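Page 37, continued from 36.
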C-alpha cells in the first residue's frame, strides 16, 4: 500500500511489530459496516458512480459472507483488518475497490470501527449487568428476612438480612450501568470523514454516514476525531469499577463458603474438588472473578499510559488500544456471567447465618438504643453501660441475653425485664425500619421494586 515509496519490503521483525491483524481481525464486522456506509455516501454525493458503488457493495457483502463462514484467510503481510478486507475486495472486483478509500483514511476508519465495537460490547455488558441484578434481586426477595451478621472491619457489627446484603450489590450494579450508559452516550459520535486528520476536499456528507451507523452526529473536529480514545478509557474505567464490585462479592462468597463461616453452599457447577484433599470444595469461579479484576484494571492503566503525552493527531502507539480493551471487556463479560450463575445456584445455610448473627455481641447497639429510648439515657452513657455489660458477658463466655436481670441491674438499676426483647437478632433486624435500613419489610419492598423495574426493562 505504501510500496511505491519503499524499495524493499518490511523485514520480519518490522512485520512482527507492525502487524495488528492477529487481534484487530475481531473488528471485521464493524469495518465492513463502516465501509458499506461510506460507499453509499460516496454514491449519494456523486463522488463515486453508482456502478462502482454497486460493485463495492456486492464485493464487501461477499467478503463478509466469507469471513462469517471462516473461508477467509487473514494475512500478516497485509498488516491490519482494513487492508486485509480492502485487498480481498480488490481481488474480487478489481480496480473499483481502490475507489472505496476516497475521502477516507485508516485513521478515521479505525476510530470508527473501534467506536462501533465498543458500543456493541457496552450494550451486551449492560444486559449482563441487568441479568446479574435480576439474579441478586430474586435471591434478595427470597431472603428478605433471613438474618446474617453484618460486619465492619470484618468483625461482627449488627445483624442484617441476607436480602439486604445482596441488594447492596444491586445498587452498585445500577451505578455501574449508569457509567456504561454515560460512556455509550459520549462515544456515540462518528469520526468517519475526518480522513487522515484534516478533513477532505471531497464533498462528503458526514451526517449521512453518522446516521447510517447509528451515531447521534458526526464528530466536530477532525484532529480530535482521529486522536481521541477517551471512549476506550471511559469504558475501561467503568469496566474496572464494575470488576472491583464483582471482586468484592467474589471475596465474600469465598469467605461465606468456607466451613468456618458456612453461610452458603455453592453448587457443584461453580466449585471444584481437590486432587489430593477429598473433603475440599473449592470456590474456584469466585476466586477467578476476584483475580481477574486485575486484568481489567491493568488494561485501563496500560491505556492511560499509552495515551499520555501523545501529540496530536494519530500515532501508531494508538494501535495498542485494542488487545487490552478486547481482553478486559471479554473478561468482564465472563465474570458477570459466572457471578450470575453462582448467585442463582448459591444455597444459604439459614441456621448457620442466624447463629453467627448472634455472635460477637451483635445486638449490643440494640441494648444501648433501649437504654436511650426507655430510660432516656444520653447515647454516650448508654454506650458506656452497654460496654460494661458486654465485658461481664464476655468474661463469663456467654451472650448478652444469657445475663440475668440482677447482673444487668448491678450495672444499671433502672433496667427492666423488657430489655430482653431487644437482644434477639430477629427483633434487631425488624427494628431497623429507617429508610434504607435492613428491616425485612424494607428489604422485601426494595427487592420487589427492583424486580418490577428489571423485568419491565427486559420486556
Ligand atoms: N492498525 C492501525 C491501528 O489500529 C490502523 C490505523 C493505521 N493508520 C496509519 N496511519 N498507519 O491503529
Amino acid at each position: 500500500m505504501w510500496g511505491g515509496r519503499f524499495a524493499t519490503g518490511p523485514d520480519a521483525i518490522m512485520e512482527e511489530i507492525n502487524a495488528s491483524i492477529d487481534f484487530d481481525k475481531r473488528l471485521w464486522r464493524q469495518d465492513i459496516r463502516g465501509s458499506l456506509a461510506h460507499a453509499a455516501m460516496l454514491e449519494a454525493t456523486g463522488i463515486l458512480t453508482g456502478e462502482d458503488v454497486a460493485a463495492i457493495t456486492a464485493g464487501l457483502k461477499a467478503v463478509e459472507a466469507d469471513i462469517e463462514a471462516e473461508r477467509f484467510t487473514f494475512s500478516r503481510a497485509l498488516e491490519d483488518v482494513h487492508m486485509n478486507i480492502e485487498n480481498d475486495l480488490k481481488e474480487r472486483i478489481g480496480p473499483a475497490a481502490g475507489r472505496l478509500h476516497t475521502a477516507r483514511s485508516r485513521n478515521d476508519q479505525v476510530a470508527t470501527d473501534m467506536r462501533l465495537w465498543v458500543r456493541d460490547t457496552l450494550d451486551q455488558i449492560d444486559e449482563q449487568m441487568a441479568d446479574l441484578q435480576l439474579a441478586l434481586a430474586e435471591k434478595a426477595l427470597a431472603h428478605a428476612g433471613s438474618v446474617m451478621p453484618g460486619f465492619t472491619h470484618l468483625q461482627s457489627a449488627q445483624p442484617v438480612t441476607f436480602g439486604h446484603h445482596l441488594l447492596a450489590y444491586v445498587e452498585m450494579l445500577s451505578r455501574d450501568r449508569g457509567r456504561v450508559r454515560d460512556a455509550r452516550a459520549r462515544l456515540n459520535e462518528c469520526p468517519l470523514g475526518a480522513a487522515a486528520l484534516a478533513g477532505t476536499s471531497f464533498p462528503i456528507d458526514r451526517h449521512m454516514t453518522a446516521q447510517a451507523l447509528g451515531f447521534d452526529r458526526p464528530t466536530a473536529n477532525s484532529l480530535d476525531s482521529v486522536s481521541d480514545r477517551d471512549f476506550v478509557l471511559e469504558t475501561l474505567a467503568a469496566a474496572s469499577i464494575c470488576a472491583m464490585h464483582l471482586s468484592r462479592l467474589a471475596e465474600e462468597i469465598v469467605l461465606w463458603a468456607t466451613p468456618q463461616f458456612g453461610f452458603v453452599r455453592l453448587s457443584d457447577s461453580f466449585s471444584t474438588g481437590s486432587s489430593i484433599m477429598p473433603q475440599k470444595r473449592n470456590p474456584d469461579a469466585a476466586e477467578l472473578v476476584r483475580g481477574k479484576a486485575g486484568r481489567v484494571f491493568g488494561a485501563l492503566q496500560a491505556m492511560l499510559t499509552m495515551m499520555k503525552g501523545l501529540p496530536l493527531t494519530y500515532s501508531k502507539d494508538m494501535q495498542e488500544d485494542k488487545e487490552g480493551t478486547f481482553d478486559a471487556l471479554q473478561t468482564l463479560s465472563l465474570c458477570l456471567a459466572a457471578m450470575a450463575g453462582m448467585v442463582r445456584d448459591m444455597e444459604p445455610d439459614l441456621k448457620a447465618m442466624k447463629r453467627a448473627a448472634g455472635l460477637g455481641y451483635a445486638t449490643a447497639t440494640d441494648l444501648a438504643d433501649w437504654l436511650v429510648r426507655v430510660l432516656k439515657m444520653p447515647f454516650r452513657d448508654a454506650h458506656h453501660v452497654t460496654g460494661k455489660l458486654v465485658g461481664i458477658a464476655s468474661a463469663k463466655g456467654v451472650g448478652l441475653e444469657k445475663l440475668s436481670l440482677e447482673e444487668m441491674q448491678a450495672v444499671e438499676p433502672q433496667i427492666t425485664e423488657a430489655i430482653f426483647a431487644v437482644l434477639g437478632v430477629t427483633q434487631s433486624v425488624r427494628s431497623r425500619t429507617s429508610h434504607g435500613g435492613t428491616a425485612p419489610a424494607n428489604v422485601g419492598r426494595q427487592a420487589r421494586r427492583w424486580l418490577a423495574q428489571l423485568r419491565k426493562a427486559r420486556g
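The longest strand covers residues 155-161. Flag for discussion at group meeting. The two ends are 50 Å apart (CA to CA).
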